[in-house]
User: Fold this.
Amino acid sequence: MTDSPHIATVTAADFESVVIQGSFERPVLVDFWADWCAPCRQLMPILSRLADEFKGQLLLAKVDTEAEQALAAQAGIRSLPTVQLYKDGQPIDQFMGALPEGQIREFLARHISRASDRLLDQARDAMAGGDLSGAAALIERAEREDPDNNRLFVAQVQLKAAEGDADGALAMLERTPLDLADDPELAALRGRLAFSAAAAEAPPTEALTAILAEDPNNSEARYQLAARQVLADDLESALENLLTLLRRDRQYGDDAARKGMLAIFDLLGGSGELVTRYRAKMLSSLY
Assistant:
């Protein structure tokens, strides 16, 4: 099926040697597929491209479940496509369905570390510490050593934002590669930049609070206060203000309240008690 040294077609006869034993040397991603399965065919080129991109840090093993029904049953496969990741002789993680490339990259990133990823992590630490020139140098080094790493784009946008060039960062986000369309870090950054723009021309927090005390229905002041609260990392207060705005003036700013709440969920990583609680409140207000 392929001439790539990083991709193998596996049967019951060599599953033990290629997948089980091979996973002690490097992670093995096992793609259980069938020719009649359209999502399998959709997923196949993405997995193949990623296997080649990781340049030997990962082996992609493909199992045709029509030809290897007993093997698929032994692996507990109940739907197609199913992709399992093996390390040290054991399946340690899996996903089902034809996920977007960005989500597959997130899945792999939990288990496979690239040298350039470590450089980008160092760059983020440098940004957090205010060393923007050091961060830029680390990102440039990562790009020289591994130009195919799509996390470079994420780090470059983050650096642009850290430098205070919000317009430049937003311009880059408009050119986000398709495989990063669902990237949670970019979604969080996009939301934070939107709140930064809203707060840039807003009165101080104390003035906004006074405005709302006199006129609780002032939608602009409520949204601006939420934006300032986001930038101050007071996310629960921001969510409460956006929820109030959603209930009182859904049409404000082209559905800005709902979009703002979703942006904060992204900032919180999409999970956790605060996200669960306010997502339920948002949905009950919408429907």
Observations:
- The chain is about 60% helix and 10% strand.
- Residues 153 and 177 are 9 Å apart (CA to CA).
- The chain has three domains: 7-109, 115-178, 197-286.
- The first strand starts at residue 7 and ends at 9.
